[in-house]
Amino acid sequence: MPDTKEIDGDVYVSPRYLAGSIWTGDPALEPLLALGFDLRHDDLGNVYVTAPDHRVRLGYLPEGEDDGLWRINA
């Protein structure tokens, strides 16, 4: 096993589920879902939650085109 100090950049894990939590029940989303945010997802595995008043939308985008994991629009 390589020394972790030598790793620089992306590390790919296969199968992907071994890399950690990436499903829609992720603990980071639970407080928003408890507040009534609407949960949607696309066929790529990205997850979107929208506030009940539609003023805030949060995207969890593990399959996005860039390296940003979270997007918040208000």
Task: Describe the structure in your own words.
By secondary structure, the protein is mainly β. 7% of the residues lie in helices and 22% in strands. The protein has a four-stranded antiparallel beta sheet, with no helix packed on it. Strand 2 and strand 3 form a beta hairpin. The protein is elongated and about 45 Å long. It starts with 29 loop residues before the first helix and ends with a strand. The model has no long low-confidence stretch (mean pLDDT 78).
Topology:
Blueprint: H1 30-34, E1 38-41, E2 47-50, E3 57-60, E4 70-73
Antiparallel strand pairs: 1-2, 2-3, 3-4
Describe what is shown at a glance.
It is built from 1 helix and 4 strands, in the order αββββ. By secondary structure, it is mainly beta. The radius of gyration is 15 Å and the shape is elongated.
Our estimate of the beta-strand percent is 15-25%
**Rg calc:** 15 Å
Overall helicity: under 10%
Poorly predicted parts: none
* Main sheet characteristics: 4 strands, antiparallel
Total strand count, please? 4
Oligomer: single chain
> Which structural class should the secondary elements be placed in?
mainly beta
- Give the SSE string: HEEEE
Across the major sheet, the strand order is 1-2-3-4
Q: Look at the structure and give the mean pLDDT.
A: 78
End-to-end distance: 44 Å
* Broad shape: elongated
DSSP summary: helix tally: 1
